[in-house]
Amino acid sequence: MITDAILAVRCQLGDLEAFDQLVERFHPALYNYARRLTGGDDAASDVVQDIWLRVVRGLPRLREPGRLRSWIFSIAHRALVDRLRDRYSDREVTGVDLSDHAAEPGDLTLEEKSVAVHAALESMPLVEREILTLFYLRELSLVEISAALNLPIGTAKSRLFRARKLLHTRMTGETHG
Question: Rounded to the nearest 10 degrees, what angle do helices 142-149 and 68-84 cross at?
Answer without folding.
Answer: 50
